[in-house]
Amino acid sequence: AEDCAERGALDTLYCDANGDLVADTPTDPAKLSNPDTLVFAYTPVEDPAVYADIWEPFIAHLEETTGKDVQFFAVQSNSAEVEAMRSGRLHVAGFSTGPTPFAVNLAGAVPFAIMGAADGQFGYKLQVFTQADSDIKEVKDLAGRRVAHTSPTSNSGNQAPRALFPGLGVEPDKDYEVVYSGSHDQSMLGVVAGDYDAAPVASEVVDRMAERGLYDTDDVRKIWESDPFPTTSFNVAHNLDPELTAKIKEAFFTFDFEGTKLGDEFEGVSKFIPITYKDQWAVIRQIQASNGVEYTPQGLAGN
Amino acid sequence: MTNQSLNQTLDHWSRFTLRQRLMRYGGLALTLLIVGWALSSIDVIWAWVWDAPSQMADLFGRMMPPDPSNLPSILEAIWQTVNIATLATMIAVVVSLPVAYIAAQNTTPNKFALWVGRFILVSSRSVNTIIWALLFVAIFGPGIVAGIVAIMFRSIGFLGKLLGEAIEEIDRKPVEALEACGASRFKIVLYAIVPQVMPAFFAVAILRWDINLRESTVLGLVGAGGIGMILQGAIDTFNWPEVAMVLLTILALVVVGEVVSSFLRKKVL
Amino acid sequence: MSTVKDTWKKPPFIANPVMRYGLYAAVAIYFVVTLATLPIDWDRVADGMSRAQRIFSGAFPPSFDRAGLLFDGFMESLKIAILATVGGIAVSVPLAFMAAGNIAVKPVYLLGRGIIIVARSFHPVIVAIIFVKAVGFGPFAGALTLVVYSIGFVAKLLAERIEEIDFGQVEAMRSAGAGFIATLAYAVMPQIMPRLVGLGIYQLDSNLRASAVVGIVGAGGIGATLANAFGRYDYDFALAITMVIVGVILISEAVSGFIRKRIA
Amino acid sequence: MLEITKLTKRYGSGDPVLKELDLTVEGDQLTSVIGSSGAGKSTLLRCINRLVEPTSGSINLNGTEFTTLGRRDLRAARRRIGMVFQGFNLIDRLTVMENVQSGRLGYISTWAALTRRYPREDIRHAYELMERVGIAHYADKRADELSGGERQRVGVVRALMQRPEILLADEPTASLDPKTSEQIMSLLRDLANELNLPVIINIHNVTEAKEYSDRIVGMRYGRIIFDDLPDQLGKDEMDEIYAGVPAEDRAEVGAAA
Amino acid sequence: MLEITKLTKRYGSGDPVLKELDLTVEGDQLTSVIGSSGAGKSTLLRCINRLVEPTSGSINLNGTEFTTLGRRDLRAARRRIGMVFQGFNLIDRLTVMENVQSGRLGYISTWAALTRRYPREDIRHAYELMERVGIAHYADKRADELSGGERQRVGVVRALMQRPEILLADEPTASLDPKTSEQIMSLLRDLANELNLPVIINIHNVTEAKEYSDRIVGMRYGRIIFDDLPDQLGKDEMDEIYAGVPAEDRAEVGAAA
Ligand SMILES: Nc1ncnc2c1ncn2[C@@H]1O[C@H](COP(=O)(O)OP(=O)(O)OP(=O)(O)O)[C@@H](O)[C@H]1O
Ligand SMILES: Nc1ncnc2c1ncn2[C@@H]1O[C@H](COP(=O)(O)OP(=O)(O)OP(=O)(O)O)[C@@H](O)[C@H]1O
Ligand SMILES: [Mg+2]
Ligand SMILES: [Mg+2]
Question: What is the tally of structural domains in chain D?
Answer without folding.
Answer: 1
